[in-house]
Amino acid sequence: MKPIQVGLLGIGTVGSGVFHVLSRNQNEIQRRAGRGIAVTMVADLDTARAQAVVGSQVQVVNDARAVIANPDIDIVIELIGGYGIARQLVMEAIDAGKHVVTANKALLAVHGTEIFAAAHKKGVMVAFEAAVAGGIPIIKSLREGLTANRIEWIAGIINGTTNFILSEMRDKGLDFDVVLKEAQRLGYAEADPTFDIEGVDAAHKATIMSAIAFGIPVQFDKAYVEGITKLGAQDIRYAEQLGYRIKLLGITKRTPQGIELRVHPSLVPAKRLLANVEGAMNAVMVQGDAVGTTLYYGKGAGSEPTASAVIADLVDITRLHTADAAQRVPHLAFQPDQMSDQPVLPMSEVVTSYYLRLRVADQAGVLARVTGLLADAGISVDAMLQREAGEGEKQTDLIILTHDVREGTMDAALAQMQALPTVLAPITRIRKEELA
């Protein structure tokens, strides 16, 4: 049987990794897939560089549509990124009857519903293991391995850049701006790191996982997104004293009222495995009713780790290429006519616990007024830490950990506390996740 033919759109870091791993492990991959898989055509604007990567045996063009139009191409791999031309090319590939493999989490988080509907109608597959957590097979685990479970929640460190920054802030006691510059120098952060440090990249990935876990449409516009730019070294230090570490988490959770979908910095107990994921590594915890808690850990980015996920998708498609479309695993794990209309909750309705840092005047009665406002709002205090003011200092930090409370209730209480004349700076609020 002749190899299944693959067209590659974009041969940058991940694309070159795909070509090299596929070439290096071709015998092993063929034994698993049942037939060979060969990249026979590549589209890239820099044709000279692309040709140098793939050699003379592969056709290189500068027009992605030439790949899609080639009747010999069975699978199109989209590695261009972004929402614009990538969306057009994926839709055109589907319309041409090609299967699609993509690592484009932004595209799927925003346009996934449209793309999956088009693929279902056309009877082709869209595979996207590489879109979430790089080389970690979390999509396959959610879609297939955990299919017997009612998934209760997912919490993940799914952006390596921010995890590297937070790890460095904790290890070296440095502030965010200093560590960001170092991350850029080392290549962990882009020249424009906005998508990473503001939580957008993690929210794209959390949106996709949420849809698969709970059988809801992808709804990135409903996600709550908060980055790490406002975190200070002192918050990481105080969290450590209280037995916690701060991580940027992507969280999605099933509740009786609806689905939570949120990305923000979180205090995680230091004894939890997730709290001990350091550097640029990724990890995802999934809680299922039958299996309990499972943890998936590994490299969330990079040429060959991401290529590993892309090639796993190629193998899956190759195995199922001639199968009845109705027998394939649905794109979002649930049958298209069985998707849920459970709402995604606004952040004001989310219930969690909090870390609060108040810069207050060092005088009698301040603590009583603050705790009195919390009590009036029905917010229970779990723990408290007050830094001793140094000699001659007239202000100090007051740290409060709360029990669970609705976010809207906390917002109202924070507004009242902020209005106190003895509260001297904007209050820092970080959510706390026990992950029990």
Task: Present the secondary structure layout.
Elements: E1 4-9, H1 13-24, H2 26-33, E2 37-43, H3 47-54, E3 59-61, H4 64-69, E4 75-78, H5 85-95, E5 99-102, H6 105-122, E6 126-127, H7 138-145, E7 151-157, H8 160-172, H9 176-186, H10 194-197, H11 200-214, E8 224-225, H12 233-241, E9 244-255, E10 258-269, E11 281-288, E12 292-299, H13 303-320, E13 351-361, H14 366-376, E14 381-386, E15 395-402, E16 405-406, H15 407-418, E17 428-432
Parallel strand pairs: 1-2, 1-4, 2-3, 4-5, 5-6, 8-10, 10-17
Antiparallel strand pairs: 7-9, 7-11, 9-10, 11-12, 13-15, 13-16, 13-17, 14-15
The radius of gyration is 24 Å
Q: How does CATH name the architecture of the largest domain?
A: 3-Layer(aba) Sandwich
CATH superfamily of the largest domain, please? Answer: NAD(P)-binding Rossmann-like Domain
User: Could you please say which CATH topology of the largest domain applies here?
Assistant: Rossmann fold
How many individual helices? 15
Distance between the termini: 51 Å
Broad structural category: alpha/beta
Q: Determine the fraction of residues in helical runs and give it as a percent range.
A: 25-40%
Largest sheet: 11 strands, mixed
Strand content: 15-25%
Any idea how many domains? 3
Write down the CATH class of the largest domain: Alpha Beta
